[in-house]
Recover the amino acids of this structure.
């Protein structure tokens, strides 16, 4: 029977966090998936798991520390040892060396495996105790956190993202509709190994900023420069979207700040619909253009006050 503290390499005063840390390190090192055909590592993994199971059960750990159970979780003295002729109930050797109950008086000793079966719900093992005694669900391995940076256009288009896990394996991650910075995705069974199975991988998404797009809820916004002729006379111009460039009609006489809408060119929503792309026109004037300067100087409309409505 091994000392569970020694098996995990921790002091008897170790905290639960210390025990989990030690187990996590050993489980990674000894896990059968990493030690195929290595029986010694497999056996040690089983012992490490058994020690972890005992020490993370507060009741079992306290009983072990008091000497009531051994490192295997079995009672150190399962019954009081009464004398053969004593009046109290006890445990004594029966015929052929088999254990029997001393019930006091003239009670006969005998094989009591059926009593153990009734008490513990299973046939007694070689040590005389039911195999199911003290069992509880084995703990799963720890979860592992990842942060995944996703390009703006990929988030809008829900393009699959490749991620490399701690074990070196890569998977293609399908982004969910409505994805945004802070969205978390759980990958079942992709965490640390454990006696009850591996934990999960928790992936937190960070949508990267873009050099000219901005996000407004499920919509995408962009400021689009147009020249004076395109604004005055109207024109068809190319405008970038998250899905590629499209043609946009600039209305005749458009002013800076006018916003045009491209339907369904935004982010995917959870209900299956999509946001739009909002294109704000920005008139871009050339610097030091003599011809334009001369035109404006002779232009009759140059004296109009577009700020008159403000009363200033």
């Amino acid at each position: 029977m091994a000392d569970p503290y020694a098996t995990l390499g921790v002091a008897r005063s170790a905290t639960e966090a210390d025990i989990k840390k030690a187990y996590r390190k050993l489980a990674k090192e000894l896990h059968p998936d990493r030690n195929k055909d290595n029986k010694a590592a497999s056996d040690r993994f089983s012992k490490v798991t058994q020690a972890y199971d005992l020490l993370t059960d507060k009741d079992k750990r306290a009983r072990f520390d008091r000497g009531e159970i051994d490192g295997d979780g079995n009672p150190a003295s399962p019954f009081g040892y009464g004398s053969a002729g004593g009046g109290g109930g006890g445990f004594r050797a029966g015929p052929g060396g088999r254990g029997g109950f001393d019930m006091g008086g003239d009670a006969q000793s005998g094989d009591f495996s059926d009593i153990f079966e009734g008490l513990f719900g299973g046939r007694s093992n070689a040590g005389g105790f039911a195999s199911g005694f003290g069992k509880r669900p084995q703990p799963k391995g720890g979860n592992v956190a990842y942060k995944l940076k996703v390009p703006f256009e990929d988030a809008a288009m829900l393009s699959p993202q490749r991620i490399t896990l701690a074990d070196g394996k890569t998977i293609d991650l399908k982004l969910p509709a409505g994805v945004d910075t802070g969205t978390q995705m759980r990958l079942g069974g992709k965490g640390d190994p454990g006696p009850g199975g591996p934990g999960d991988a928790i992936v937190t998404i960070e949508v990267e900023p873009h050099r000219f797009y901005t996000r407004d809820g499920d919509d995408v916004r962009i400021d689009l420069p147009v020249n004076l002729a395109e604004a005055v006379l109207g024109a068809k111009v190319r405008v970038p979207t998250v899905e590629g460039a499209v043609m946009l009609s600039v209305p005749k006489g458009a002013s800076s700040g006018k916003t045009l809408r491209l339907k369904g060119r935004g982010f995917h929503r959870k209900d299956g619909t999509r946001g739009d792309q909002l294109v704000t026109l920005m008139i871009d004037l050339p610097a030091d253009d003599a011809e334009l300067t001369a035109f404006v100087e002779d232009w009759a409309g140059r004296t109009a006050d577009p700020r008159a409505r403000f009363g200033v």
